[in-house]
Amino acid sequence: MIFGGFQKNSMIDFPGKIAALVFTQGCNFHCPYCHNPALxxxxxxxxxSEEEVLLFLKKRKGLIEGLAITGGEPTLQxxxxxxxxxxxxxxxxxxxxxxxxxxxxxxxxxxxxxxxxIAMDIKTLPSEYAPLLSDHSMEHAxxxxxxxxxxxxxxxxxxxxxxxxxISEEKAKxxxxxxxxxxxxxxxxxxxxxxxxxxFFNKKGRGLDDHEINRIKTVLSPHTESxxxx
Length: 230
Ligand code: SF4
Fold this sequence. Notes:
Layout: E1 3-10, E2 19-24, H1 50-59, E3 66-70, H2 80-89, E4 94-98, H3 103-111, E5 117-121, H4 139-151, E6 155-161, E7 163-164, H5 169-179, E8 182-188, H6 198-203, E9 206-207, H7 210-220, E10 224-229
Helix pairs in contact: 3-4, 5-7
Bound molecules: iron/sulfur cluster.
């Protein structure tokens, strides 16, 4: 595992738990609004070793209630299943954040019972991810991940950052069949601090206003068990 960051405790990254948070290095997307741009490069700096994370968890048993694994994109780490096995063997529940691009990794983790909670970003319609990718289309992979997560039976959340042109009321209508039955959906307001591509927001990108966000909520919320705007 290559970790680009580590946060010893967080009250907001694992629903209902005080969790430690590890940030994996490397992402296969390049979202202009990414708030962790230093984590996108595949060969970034290793800030903490796997052994140090495991030792920290061992010492904090009873104080820390779980581990949240975020990125970057954690499913790109080839040792992720092995790392999750070690964390679970210590008795810690795991929450995984993912962009949904590696459904085969998600399937393996779910089948092995290694995850307790998943949060997946849905950035736009799966057929419209091209501006966020450096290589091929991921439409099928993204749709497969969404179905896997909804059918997993574990706690899960989908979340969309409210940035034009990626999401709109019209696009939300097309998302309905994909997210129907999801346990939780979160619309996240756009924040313009520490962006991967600030230039994008000088040209065509912008955060949606409250009215636009509420219109999207009206479209999506009848189809999910719970819905939040944060
Ligand atoms: S927002 Fe997430 S998926 Fe997008 S570039 Fe950043 S880490 Fe990758």
